[in-house]
């Protein structure tokens, strides 16, 4: 905005400087040209703005000049050039037709008209125009250059129509792309290519062509509606809403756009609320909004995916492992994305399914070899697998990895009661086994009820392992009661506190 304003001001400054330069150095004739005749004044200003690339300002002055002197073919020709530069081919064509009417031997106007007709895909008309130029001026290189392309283009155009009606989508799309290079303003070609891309499932490409057609045809409510529907199909709610609003700007009571707008608006609200809940880590809201999305839009696959993907992530964060795995799997069956694979892998870890977790992390890395979360995840799983071969404190107490402290203490009390060495008589092998088991149970309780130690253990370290913890080994007997593990049992008489 600011830049454009500055440009405009600079442009105007330069234009006025040029005028004053003419005033100061030039003859009376030009003075009269500038101030004596309003039409010429506007023409000169228009030319100056045009030279500066200030197309809108140039247009304003050419309009003004033509209001005073509507049959000035040179001014008309200049205005046509500006229209063309602004992409307004229809207005340019109107001006050029008037120019040719006023001055039939003005070759440049016919060549311009011919080029516009080629770009519009009106090849027969272009041929007539360019032929007229070449009849008058055989060696006109520019006319020859465009004229020589017409034969091939016409043949390709016909072939494309046939391929399109034969539903040879891929071949038709390739050929259409070649023709559109030469005829970029032809809406029929675009519409055919849209059909091809939709049939090929290339929705994004269809959208690009549709957007072009909204510019090629004015008041194109149909294209806006189609665009909105395509964005909706792709699960792009905001974009869909923007396009249907464009339709309603042109026709506020459009029969199809209005009901479509109502529906899109409702869904977009839920989607946007859902996204905010997830990014604000309001996981309960996230889960209920995702379920709401499934209810208000039960049939669109892309919104279904967005809902399932959020249910996967937010259930995981809520610690609901089973729900998380189920929703992640649904989302993944629709689209395999690294972050969803990593969410499911985390859920698998919490569930104790390390192989499945590893497999998901590997798949994530197949999709994106630099996905850091998956790289870290693989390392974590490897540590956990190594650890699983050693002591697994969760297994010892027979609790889930996501168990609460309360659940852990309960499991601990149960196991400790069952395996307390006092329950076993004499020096039997059973008593020995129970002693070992009892040590493990106490160690498990020590680690899993201490948030620091549990965190270390979850990260794949054994906080009681002297190897990984530099001599902070743990032995409840040794530490508190001078009992030496592995030395064969001495008298065993301490009271264990079930806290
Ligand atoms: C959609 O638009 C809303 C508000 O205009 C914005 O907050 C949100 O981030 C947008 N969503 C996407 C996916 O771009």
From TrEMBL:
A single GO molecular function term of this UniProt record: protein-folding chaperone binding
Residue spans of biased composition, Basic and acidic residues class: 450-459
Residue segments, region Disordered: 450-475
Family matches, as Pfam families: DnaJ, TPR_16, TPR_2, TPR_8
Predominant subcellular localization, coarse grouping: endoplasmic reticulum
Swiss-Prot/TrEMBL TPR repeat ranges: 39-72, 73-106, 221-254, 338-371
Entry's Gene Ontology cellular component terms: endoplasmic reticulum lumen
GO biological process, one term: protein folding in endoplasmic reticulum
Matches recorded under CDD domains: DnaJ
Keyword Manganese: no
Alphabetized UniProt keyword annotations: Endoplasmic reticulum, Repeat, Signal, TPR repeat
Highest taxon of the lineage: Eukaryota
Annotated localization: Endoplasmic reticulum lumen
Residues of the J domain: 392-461
Protein's UniProt name: J domain-containing protein
